[in-house]
Design goal:
7 strands, about 30% strand, rod-shaped, three-stranded mixed sheet, about 150 residues, four-stranded antiparallel sheet, Immunoglobulin-like, alpha+beta
Length: about 150
């Protein structure tokens, strides 16, 4: 029974030292390498998903948009008009920050709202008026300048 007795010799193994277990880090198989597609598969998938979502939003069918009902007014009915005249004629008319023209100004179309209207006569000064326009409303006014009136 010589084979049953423990021996003091260690069998030859790839151990680093006496009594320490053998350990090697995992190394994935190097067959073919996997290439760029395998390495960047997650990034490519996320990019394609983002492009698909963007395409769905951009090319969404128009049937998902709310339908316009026949009761909505047309663009002309949603506008208001403003007519301005002056005595003497030829004064510059400014609505908000836009120069509209010289008096007489007839049926200038504006969106409903409040506007500062300035009528500026070169020698006689200017007149400021706040005009509030409603949908479909027409408003007209006249600014009178006297020839001897000094400019403010």
């Amino acid at each position: 029974m010589a084979g049953d007795a423990p021996s003091s010799e260690e069998p030859s193994s790839p151990r680093s030292g006496q009594g320490s277990p053998s350990w090697e880090p995992y190394r994935p198989p190097q067959k073919g390498g996997g290439g760029v597609l395998r390495r960047y598969a997650f990034s490519i998938t996320v990019g394609i998903a983002a492009l698909a979502a963007g395409a769905l939003i951009y090319f969404a069918p128009t049937r998902l948009a709310p339908e316009q009902s026949a009761s909505l007014p047309t663009s002309d009915e949603r506008r208001a008009t403003l007519s301005v005249s002056s005595e003497p004629p030829g004064a510059v008319v400014i609505v908000g920050a836009d120069t509209v023209g010289t008096t007489p100004v007839n049926n200038h179309r504006l969106s409903p709202g409040a506007y500062l209207v300035t009528v500026d006569q070169q020698d006689s000064g200017s007149r400021d008026t706040v005009v509030t326009l409603s949908t479909g409303e027409s408003t007209a006014f006249t600014s009178r300048f006297s020839q001897g009136e000094p400019s403010p």
